[in-house]
């Protein structure tokens, strides 16, 4: 069985914006806000170069932290690795099962019950019915939603919905884990339980790729740091291990609404 890895060669991701003209005020404003990453295709449409000619490899055992200001391309890269976006140029090869925690609520049907959503998300993740059934009790217990799982998700508060989504998303181990910031869900007590579960999932993954604005989290979790700017990788360096352990990552989490 081959090792888990992600290998990219000269990949670019672009988004068309609008009909372009040389004197466009909109183009001038976008140039200022994106660092000049506005180009033009053969049909004279403006395009944003969100990812610009990246070549890299993430191999087994690596915990990669993506850092950079908003708009630097971190989230676009994560979505590309997860299969949400396809490169317009270059080659991207992924070996291993990916779990993406970019939007844990994605795929929930508000008119379906909690139990029905467990099945729906399992199907979307490519799980067989028997595998989904084997996970139901574990997901229900972890979410602590009790009888609410028999009600439509539209009756849930945002915090309840995130509990269910988090319990589902983290119920299956994966070879490659993709995250945009570290997730925390619910009140303080549930947050601790969620953080411990997330750390366990990270520990079992062969490859981790996480974007973060928190240098303490990157120092604690990652062994490789990549700095991004204007869709390019401007630095790639090892991360020195922290001097001492700090326990579960609760204080460094990006708190979701509840």
UniProtKB/TrEMBL annotation:
Protein name as it appears in the record: Sugar ABC transporter ATP-binding protein
Cleavable signal peptide: none
Assigned protein family: Belongs to the ABC transporter superfamily.
GO CC list: membrane
ABC transporter domain ranges (all copies): 30-255
One function term, GO molecular function aspect: ABC-type transporter activity
Gene3D superfamilies: P-loop containing nucleotide triphosphate hydrolases (3.40.50.300)
Keywords: ATP-binding, Cell inner membrane, Cell membrane, Membrane, Nucleotide-binding, Transport
Keyword Nucleotide-binding: yes
Domain of life where this protein originates: Bacteria
Entry keyword annotation includes Cell inner membrane: yes
């Amino acid at each position: 069985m081959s090792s888990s890895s992600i290998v990219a060669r000269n990949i670019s991701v672009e988004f068309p914006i609008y009909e372009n003209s040389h004197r466009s005020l909109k183009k001038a404003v976008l140039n200022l806000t994106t660092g000049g990453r506005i180009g033009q295709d053969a049909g004279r449409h403006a395009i944003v170069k969100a990812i610009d000619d990246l070549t890299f490899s993430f191999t087994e055992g690596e915990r990669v932290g993506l850092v950079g200001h908003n708009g630097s391309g971190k989230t676009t890269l994560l979505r590309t690795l997860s299969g949400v976006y396809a490169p317009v140029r270059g080659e991207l090869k992924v070996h291993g099962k990916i779990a993406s925690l970019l939007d844990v609520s994605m795929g929930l049907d508000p008119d379906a019950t909690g139990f029905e959503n467990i099945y729906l998300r399992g199907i979307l993740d490519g799980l067989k019915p028997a595998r989904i059934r084997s996970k139901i009790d574990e997901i229900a217990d972890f979410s602590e939603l009790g009888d609410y799982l028999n009600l439509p998700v539209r009756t849930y508060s945002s915090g309840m919905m995130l509990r269910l989504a988090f319990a589902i998303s983290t119920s299956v181990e994966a070879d490659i884990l993709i995250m945009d910031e570290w997730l925390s869900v619910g009140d303080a007590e549930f947050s601790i339980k969620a953080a411990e579960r997330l750390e366990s999932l990270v520990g079992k993954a062969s490859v981790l790729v996480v974007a973060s604005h928190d240098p303490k989290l990157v120092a604690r979790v990652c062994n490789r740091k990549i700095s991004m700017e204007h869709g390019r990788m401007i630095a790639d360096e090892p991360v020195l291990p922290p001097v001492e352990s700090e326990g579960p990552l609760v204080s460094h989490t990006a708190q979701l609404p509840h």
